Amino acid sequence: LSSLPLQMLFYVNGIYYVFYFLATLAMIVYKSQVFSYPDDFLAPDLTMLFIMAILEVLRLYLGSKGNLTEEEGPLGLSLAIMVGSVILSVYFLVWQTYVLKADVIINAVLLLTYGLESVLKVIAIAAFVS
Question: Any stretches that span the bilayer, and where are they (predicted)?
Fold first, then answer.
């Protein structure tokens, strides 16, 4: 009953998140050097990026484990953790100090994968429950 498309999406999303993390970190460093980045906002932006990375590792682990063991608990918990990741992604898309066009593109792709993944998770959970 485990979902192969969902498992493939976990793998692709894991690889993409490494790119996302490094690109966002590089852009924060770039913005702090090029623009007049307020010192009060640099540490919170970096902290939120690292919190997002921790949530992402946990989310991908629980989602993959839940899918492979066909248990709805870890998969549902992964879905709940995704809410925090989505909020942080929206923060980096809309509310951070400076938003570059590259920020918009990489966050839009991340949110698109989150949306697709959530649909596949709900379908997988429904299959496991029935």
Answer: 9-30, 42-62, 74-98, 104-129
